[in-house]
Amino acid sequence: MSKKKKILVFIDWFLPGYKAGGPIRSVANMIDALHEYFDFYIVTSDRDYLEKEPYPEITKDKWLNFESKATVYYFSETKKNKKNLIDLINNIDCDIAYINGIYSFFFSILPLRLIKKTGKKIIVAPRGMLSKQAFSAKQFKKKIFIFIAKLFGLYKDVNFQATDKKEALDIKTILSNNANINVVPNFPRITLTKEPKQIIKQKGELKLVSIARISAEKNTLYALQILASTDFSGKIEYDLFGSIYNNKYWKECNKIINLLPKNIKVNYKNSIESSMIHKTFLKYHFAFMPSKGENFGHSILESFSAGCPVIISDQTPWRDLEDKNVGWDIALSEKSKFIDTIQKCIDMKQEEYKIMSEKAFNFAKECTNNELLISDTKNLFKNE
After folding, report:
1. Do 85 and 110 meet the contact criterion of CB atoms below 8 Å apart?
2. Strand 5-10 to strand 96-100: parallel, antiparallel, or no bridges (unpaired)?
3. Which residues make beta-bridge pairs with 161?
4. Residues with Cβ < 8 Å from 147, sequence gap 6 or more?
5. Distance between CA atoms of 31 and 150, rounded to whole angstroms?
6. Rounded to whole angstroms, how far apart are CA atoms 377 and 190?
7. 96-100 and 286-289: which strand pairing?
8. H-only helix segments in the chain
């Protein structure tokens, strides 16, 4: 039996963290699917996204067994330096380095520079950070970084994983038209239930949910503006789950919330752990998440897997949803269509909703068939 390849993974945040959303889920799902084929060594921080305190009950600065699927090293703030990172890289002697993200100095830029010196294969997964929407935030700093990276050949002879053709184009546009890119989608989480949910949908009542960061990128304010832009006929309850990225932005959201009519109620429910996402979607009729862009959209797929159809923008890989009868993907410029769709959902009766819910559930089952994806990702981790 051939020896498993060692994949050294760098990522700013990993389980039990959940507040960074998609990237954590992408790596965790990949390890779930591929741990029998590769030995994964994950290097990450000892705390969750935006948190000042480390994870409780986790040993820092030591390799730990993670669910018998991987080995994880949680760097403490005091030990997070170049010398310790060099020692760690040398001791593992990996076959391939898999770097998540672009702009993080300690978990992306520094590992990339250090491992290039060893001649080992490097795969960089940008995780949507080179998309037009992501690049527009802190644009000046990012442009300077990209200029310097190109000047010193930081990404020369590096392999990239794009999750779709659009991200491949982003990589070519921002970094290099000659970049070596493999288009390999993210792994979805395996559907957790055998049957779709049984929530009752009465005409005139609508329960909406968003499980995403409260941020400009996720377009929380836009969603609230849609709810405030007309007199909807019926009752709407909209629950928001997710970390607040920017307090100023959240204040703008609250201004809208405070002006909503009595028939529309918005509740902020804080962040929820990854393990609770599926159970949470089971309690709602539709997910309403009109984000400005998604590299994959794990939360969207989780919604489908709970039999919860979606109302999203057309800026994600999830398209032609209305034709599939599993939801709607609407251009952000078409506010009137968002309004009409929400009113349609309010008026929807149980019979029609039950069909949509079942279709969403079955659609998720189709999407979580991982055989081809396993083959493509195994090819991504070839040494050639």
Report:
1. yes
2. parallel
3. 182
4. none
5. 31
6. 17
7. unpaired
8. 22-34, 82-92, 110-116, 132-136, 139-151, 165-174, 220-228, 247-259, 274-281, 298-305, 321-324, 335-347, 350-367, 371-380
Name 100's bridge partners.
125
- Work out the end-to-end distance of the chain between its first and last CA atoms, rounded to an integer number of angstroms: 21
Chain center to CA of 345: 26
CA–CA–CA angle 166, 168, 170 (5° rounding):
70
Phi/psi at 204 (nearest 5 deg)? 95, 0
Distance CA 301, CA 185 (A): 13
Place of tokens 């959940």: 18
Q: How far apart are CA 345 and CA 119, in angstroms?
A: 56
The pLDDT averaged over each successive group of 10 residues in the chain (384 residues) is 84 92 88 92 94 92 94 96 95 94 94 93 91 75 89 91 89 88 83 68 97 92 96 96 91 96 96 88 96 87 93 93 97 97 97 95 82 85 75
How far is Cα 356 from Cα 309, in angstroms, rounded to an integer?
A: 7
Cα separation of 108 and 58, whole Å?
23
Query: Is this structure's pTM higher than 0.90?
Result: no
Alpha-carbon distance of 270 to 4, in angstroms, equals 41
What CA–CA distance (Å, rounded) separates 73 from 261? 50
**Could you tell me if 96 and 121 are in contact, meaning their C-beta atoms sit under 8 angstroms apart?**
yes
